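Standup notes
- DV: blocked on the single-chain target, sequence here:
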Amino acid sequence: MLNLKKLIQSLAVAAVAVFASASMADSALQLAQTSDGFDAEAKYMASCFACHSTGAAGAPKVEAGVYDDQWAARMEKGMEAVMANVINGVGAMPAKGLCFDCTDADLQALVDYMVEASQ
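- DV (later): unblocked, structure below
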């Protein structure tokens, strides 16, 4: 029953992501790229924006000035703990935030992007 609940939560997150990405894409954050050409902003918009722009299901919001309120407590646990949650999923967030084509380095770039954009 718990797996069914997680599946339903993941599907709901995916549906919100598709809707929000299509309807809110014009409020994009500043472009950020890693040295290998991975476009963190584009991937954020495709995989993370729906929940992290609204705080859906307890996701830390990404917008200027919210670091202390939304990110500080998470980051105090250390980047290793944050990345373990990103890779494995936590709460309503599915593993890799549904970014199944992301490498661990890509996921790290996404976290760096979201944290920096929230300063």
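- Follow-up: Residues 14-35 have pLDDT under 50 and may be disordered.
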